[in-house]
């Protein structure tokens, strides 16, 4: 949308793979677990485990599963979660989608300097649903010219240095 308005907003698509195991017996459901050393994440989804790992080189508009990314993902995952070796993979339940990412991995929220009437709420890198209610309130307050209880500047989510016009 920004490009259609002649603006360059530093957000780009990044494809993410979500690999799904076959049914697995767990003692209890697993919350989202993120291994900081490898970047592997996983959580239970019913009787299955879903897991993934971002490929930093996989940016832009590319479609479909990248099955070649499974091996390095599983290799990293089994270092931290060796019990995954007993799990099967359900290729038909695995899927892919896009994250919207910014160069600094922070959302862009608020007015765009030099573009009157333009408000941004983008670049959440998969965390948009978690932040939607608060961001909607900030954007609504800013659009109406009301006092902001939470400002995008205080949160480090805006700033003219992050924008330029096309």
Low-pLDDT runs = none
* Count of DSSP strands: 9
Strand order of the largest sheet: 3-4-5-2-6
How much strand? 15-25%
**Average of per-residue pLDDT values:** 86
Q: Tell me which oligomeric state these chains represent.
A: single chain
Distance between the termini: 13 Å
Counting DSSP H or I runs of 4 or more residues, the number of helices is: 2
Kindly provide the radius of gyration, computed on alpha-carbon positions and rounded to a whole number of angstroms. Answer: 19 Å
Largest sheet: 5 strands, antiparallel
Secondary structure: helix percent: 10-25%
Specify the structural class. Answer: alpha+beta
Shape field: elongated
Can you walk through the features of this model?
The protein is built from two helices and nine strands, in the order E-E-E-E-E-H-E-E-E-H-E. With 166 residues, the protein is α+β, with helices and mostly antiparallel strands.
Q: Descriptors for this entry?
A:
166 residues; five-stranded antiparallel beta sheet; two-stranded antiparallel sheet; single chain; 2 helices; elongated; 16% helix; alpha+beta
Concise summary:
With 166 residues, the chain is an alpha+beta fold.
Strand and helix map with partners:
Layout: E1 7-8, E2 12-20, E3 33-34, E4 41-45, E5 48-52, H1 70-80, E6 95-101, E7 108-111, E8 119-122, H2 128-143, E9 164-165
Antiparallel strand pairs: 1-9, 2-5, 2-6, 3-4, 4-5, 7-8
């Amino acid at each position: 949308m920004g490009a259609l308005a002649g603006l360059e907003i530093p957000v780009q698509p990044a494809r993410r793979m979500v690999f799904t195991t076959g049914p697995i017996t767990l003692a209890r459901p697993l919350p989202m677990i993120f291994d900081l050393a490898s970047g592997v994440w996983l959580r239970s989804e019913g009787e299955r485990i879903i897991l993934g790992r971002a490929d930093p080189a996989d940016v832009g508009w590319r479609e479909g599963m990248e099955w070649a990314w499974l091996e390095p993902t599983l290799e990293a995952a089994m270092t931290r979660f060796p019990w995954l070796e007993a799990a099967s993979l359900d290729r038909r339940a695995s899927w892919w989608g896009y994250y919207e990412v910014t160069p600094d991995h922070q959302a862009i929220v608020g007015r765009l300097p030099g573009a009157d009437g333009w408000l941004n709420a983008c670049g959440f890198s998969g965390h948009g649903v978690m932040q939607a209610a608060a961001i909607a309130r900030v954007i609504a307050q800013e659009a109406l010219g009301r006092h902001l209880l939470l400002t995008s500047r205080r949160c480090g989510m805006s700033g003219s240095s992050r924008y330029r016009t096309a």
